Amino acid sequence: MPDASPVLAGGLKGNFQAYEQDIRVRNYQLCGILAVVFMLAGSSLDWVVFQEEGVKRFFPARVLSAVVSVLVWLALTTAWGKRMHRLLGLLMAMPLIVGIAWMIYAKGGADSPYYAGLNLVMLGAAILMRWTLQDSILVVVLTVTSYLLACYFHGPIVNRSIFFNNLYFLFVTGVFTTAGTWFYNTIRFSEFKLRHDLDLNRAELEASNQKLRELDEAKSRFFANISHELRTPLTLLIAPLESLIQSAESTRPQEERDLMATMHGNSMRLLKLINDLLDLVRLESGRAQVNTKRVNVNDFIGGLANAVGSVAKDKRIHLHSHVDEDLGTVLADPEKLERICLNLLFNALKFTAANGHVNFSALKTDGWLAIEVRDSGMGIPADQLPHIFNRFWQADTSSQRKFQGMGIGLALVKELAEAQGGNVVATSEVGKGTTMTVNIPLLQGEPTATEDDESDETIEEGDADSPKNKDWIAELYRRAELFPAMTSLQATLRPVETGVGRSRKPKLLIADDEPDMLRFLKSQLSGTFEILEAVDGQQAVEKAAQFLPDIILSDMMMPEKDGLQVCRELRERSITRSIPVVLLTARADEKTKLACLDAGASDFLAKPFSLTEIMVRLKNLVDSRLFQKELVVQKQQLENALEQIKETESMLVQNEKLASLGRLSAGLIHEINNPLNYARQGLGIISRSTKSLPEEERADFADTVKDVEEGVNRVIQIISDLRGFTRTTNQLNHAFDLKNVVNTCMRFFAHVWKDGIQREVDIPEELEIRGDSNQFVQVLINFIQNALDAMATKEYPEGETACIKLSAFARGDRTIFTIKDNGPGIPQEIRDKIFDPFFTTKDVGQGMGLGLSICNRIIADHGGRIEVRSQPGQFTEFILELPSTDSTHNNHADT
Questions:
Q1: What is the pLDDT of residues 68-79, one digit of tens each?
Q2: Rounded to whole angstroms, what are the CA distances from 217 to 212, 286, 414, 814?
């Protein structure tokens, strides 16, 4: 909208100029009259200054200026003159300026005292003419110029000081005139703008007031229409429900009867609220009629006292009624009077504690019937008394208020009293009680006609063709008025749980101050949850800390502490921090949702709610809660496993030390090689010296040298094998002879074969496989050592010995290598775990469970795989499938 401001400003200035035009025209006309008067009256000044000569010489000029001013004045009265008012205003000033300048020229020049007339022209123009800034500057310039020309043509300036003095004052007056015109115009424009804004605001206020009146009327019509529309379906709900209650008094289960009683009670509460709203709208619109009848005051007051007596008894409140003896029968509207009394009585009973008193009286005071309800309740603060009869006003509007209500009861009392020409007065003292007094004029005369009774208007909503239906509906509305919209004392007692925790169901804490809602939720959810109850926020917090339920379902608005405060306190306590909380709220706006989540609620539901939705959401949250508990257990298990891993880590460190020892051994082997070579060379020299020995000693000497040579060669072979095993290589794409590798590996276990363990090796000649021979030796050593350890634990029957069989054969482009022992076998239940890291069946200190895992990884790196077959008690066979040299499959071709 940035382009709107210039347009608005231009329009405002245009309006200002139009507004100023009429004022300027009037001012120009006034200045014309003053110019004529004072120009002609100036002849007296001529007489005083220049005597008769001056009068004769200047009078024609004065008359001419006056004539021009009159002509301009006449032009300003025409439509053309009003349009050209700025030009005519300048023309009105010009005769005065020219005339005075001519007088200065004619008499005295720069020494003439008539220069003061030019000052008067500029000053008067600034005050009266209301010129614009441009016009004012033009007039000042013309005035000063006229004075200079008059002095110039008069002749030489003799007295320059007087000339400068006159010119200075003319200039200063011109500056003041110009500045004053600008300032004055600015002020006038600001005032006009303020008046313009004020007019706009006034117009907007009037439009807003009109809209408010229309909205108020629409609201009244809406309440009236919606109340009428709600009455019909509500009546059709109550009537069948009452039929069901009467027919099922003894045949239905107690749970169903309780549900129907809850439905009926809340339907009656809703009907009473609708009736109150409809009556309030009628009274506001002035459509309510007063239908007076003869009312026996004593019977009327006694009947109402008996009607509400059961409520007072339930709340342990003493109710007393009193009627003045001289009050017999009066003329009044019994329906409206009953509504007034019932509202006041129920209000008094609601705000009075147990063992309190409520006095219900009818008094006659100076031609007035005074209905007085006095209670010993909590009282009303003095600053709130002026507001209690306002519609929808409540003393406590917080979400923690103890007493529910809409704030229309006392407003309805006031309207009903005023509709009958009366009034209502309240007096109260905090802590001592409240007195409500309704004054109704005592009427004389005959009762009014009842054909237009308001009940007829309401009855025509439903099917009221028969008098029986009309009577039933009227009786229904009266029963709704007599229905107490308050919680019984028994229902407000805090429930005490016994035997909590005996069930295996999840524990659900329900917190709600409405007994019907609490009872309904308990009946519907008790099949799935073990129910705990709380009737206010404080009890909800206490029971949550005491019983640690699995989930909490809480109302938003509760006494003591609302649902938000309950959430905050539960989140502040470590023991209840993780309990999920679901809030029930009648508000579904975004602000309420954010407030619930900010307070720590896990979820929220708007009323009215679906019971199925509540069940699903509660179940999901409880499942999540149970999963969290399982995660806590698993976390503890993982922490324990971490401790075990740390212990294993220390074992791995020890293993690394052994590996370092192996590398040291490799260095030592290298160093041992040189002495062995020297030994072999020495043996060669010794063998050649055999011929120098006697013939009889040569045979023994040759045998001895041969034995020594065989021993040295064996040591050299073992060292060669060890050196090859300890060498670090990465030749996964290298082909090697399988039989040579197996023979090398078997030599490492030469001491084992001497102990009687049988071995059978069936490896074809020149069978090659592709891979790292050193890593394959490591795999064979692991499998053979595991087989030896397993066979050592088995007791063999007579005639059977421990035996290891190694065999290999080619199958297509793969080589199958098997290692089989006749040990105790591997149980079926652990077969899938033997290749897992750190899995072992050996005792602590006899193995870390890494051997088979490492073997599995090495074979997989070679592009092969390992299978295991076992029969517990008979054998175990490991089958290694490896790529042969002809294999086109090579997972490590790039290494």
A1: 888 878 887 888
A2: 8, 12, 20, 96
